[in-house]
Amino acid sequence: MNALTYDGIDAAWWPYVFILLAGWLPTDVWRWLGVLSAGRLDERSPAVALARTIATSLVAAVIGRLVLVPGGSLEAIPLPIRIAALATGFAAYFWLGRQTLVAILFAEVVLLGVPWALGMF
């Protein structure tokens, strides 16, 4: 065994153990600590407001990156359609009762429906 890297062990089971140890376990520990401590935190405290702000900004940054600099098959959809899908999802979220699933569905309809209607797929 050279090291505990992805290619460090030549066994069929090793990639799965590596994903478990390097990906899932460190993330899940913080999730469980959050669940255990959430009941003790004041929802209006500055620390919770800061954590919520950071989490929201990270989600916004990921969405912005997916829209403006996509990779994979999303690259085939033109930028104006991706922006229209984002705007439609945002509008649906606010106008239809702040339901995330509804907003995602509206954005998906624009993201996939417009290129399909234009014969791009």
From TrEMBL:
Annotated transmembrane regions: 12-33, 45-67, 79-96, 101-118
Keyword entries, A-Z: Membrane, Transmembrane, Transmembrane helix
Protein name from the UniProt record: Branched-chain amino acid transport protein (AzlD)
Native source organism of the sequence: Aureimonas phyllosphaerae
